[in-house]
Design a protein that fits this description.
Elements lengths: L4 E2 L2 E2 L7 H8 L6 H12 L7 H13 L4 E5 L5 H9 L5 E6 L2 H13 L7 E5 L2 H5 L7 E6 L6 H11 E10 L15 H15 L3 E6 L5 E6 L2
Parallel strand pairs: 3-4, 3-6, 4-5, 6-7
Antiparallel strand pairs: 1-2, 7-9, 8-9
Helix pairs in contact: 2-4, 2-5, 3-4
Length: 223
């Protein structure tokens, strides 16, 4: 029987409080290298994923034993460091970002972490231009933290790129509490809300929406 009971009556699901969300967000700590990369992000105006989302990425990369990962939105390397923490020791990260300076900072972060240069491929350019040239079903995990207005197009490409059993993950799936509010109808919010509906209804996928760090929408391509 599902659900807890009090006096034989099923309890309503507990609403998670901000204090509990904050506790969960800090449940796994971030090492000093990721923290330094996070500080560098502030200097170039980049908003990296939160610690909770980073821990979730690391966990998912480990679950699928990721050896080949695509990342859209390199930033200064915060998410990349978390991904490397869950990837296989010979795994390769292909990361795309419009800003070459961001990627220079990410490269510095990876080198400082002792990650060999052959384990990462940093490509400066438009995410849609680059991702369309990558090989079908060749990746264990695709992480997307790029232009929110292009999330629909990224989804189609992620379906093509990820192998059966692999996972795609979208950052900012709650978009600062706007997605859950039907009154919010700006273009970014509508795009992400529609993406969530598409993912949830797609019979090729098994999906979950995690409330960590502004939301992570994760979906596994069924075999």
């Amino acid at each position: 029987m599902r659900g807890d009971k009090v006096g034989g009556t099923p309890k309503e699901p507990t609403i998670t409080t901000p204090a509990s969300l904050a506790y969960a967000e800090g449940f796994v700590s971030e090492d000093h290298l990721a923290t330094e990369a996070r500080l560098r992000a502030e200097t170039v105006g980049v908003v990296p994923i939160g610690i909770g989302a980073g821990a979730a990425l690391q966990f998912l990369a480990g679950l699928v034993q990721a050896k080949a990962v695509v990342e859209l939105g390199t930033g200064t390397g915060v998410s990349g460091l978390w991904l490397f923490g869950g990837m296989q020791s010979d795994g390769v990260l292909t990361s795309v970002d419009l800003e070459a300076e961001n990627q220079r900072l990410a490269r510095d972060a990876f080198v400082a972490a002792g990650i060999p240069s052959q384990r990462f491929r940093l490509i400066a350019g438009s995410a849609l231009d680059v991702i369309t040239r990558l090989t079908d079903h060749a990746y264990d995990l695709v992480f997307i933290d790029a232009d929110k207005l292009e999330y629909g197009e990224y989804f189609e490409e992620a379906i093509r790129l990820v192998r059966p059993g692999g996972v795609m993950v979208f950052a900012n799936a709650l978009l600062r509490d706007k997605v859950a509010d039907p009154a919010q109808r700006d273009a970014e919010t509508v795009t992400i809300r529609e993406l969530g509906k598409r993912v949830a209804e797609d019979e090729r996928l098994r999906s979950i929406l995690l409330p960590m760090s502004d939301g992570l929408l994760a979906a596994q391509l069924l075999g």
